[in-house]
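Researcher: Sequence recovery benchmark, item below. Answer with residues only.
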């Protein structure tokens, strides 16, 4: 019983913290500027790297909040009829949909270009 008590207390123990209390993570996060779509240069590229041979269309170059990216991702997934996710300010759509996504993004007002082969 004593061993389990020690184990649970060591999980929440902070050994070193340079910026003080870690519960104030909003103070250390950087804000992303919310630019209108016509001022954003977006790249659309189909890639297979690190995905087990599966083709994924990656859209990068966004300068907006994560809520805006989530809404945009939902629109693009419904246009392509596939799944996708948001990772590190980039959108990943399953499958090779570069041409269709460039057309949809330009209709939405983004400066979209096809990147890569």
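Model:
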């Amino acid at each position: 019983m004593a061993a389990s008590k020690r184990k649970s207390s060591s999980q929440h123990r902070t050994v070193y913290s340079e910026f003080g209390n870690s519960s104030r993570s909003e103070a250390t996060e950087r804000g992303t500027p919310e630019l209108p779509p016509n001022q954003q240069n977006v790249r659309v590229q189909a890639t297979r790297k690190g995905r087990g041979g599966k083709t994924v269309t990656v859209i990068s170059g966004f300068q907006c909040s994560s809520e805006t990216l989530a809404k945009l991702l939902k629109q693009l997934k419904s246009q392509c009829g596939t799944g996708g996710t948001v990772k590190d300010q980039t959108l990943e759509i399953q499958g090779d949909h570069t041409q269709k996504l460039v057309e949809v993004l330009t209709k939405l007002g983004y400066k979209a270009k096809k990147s890569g082969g």
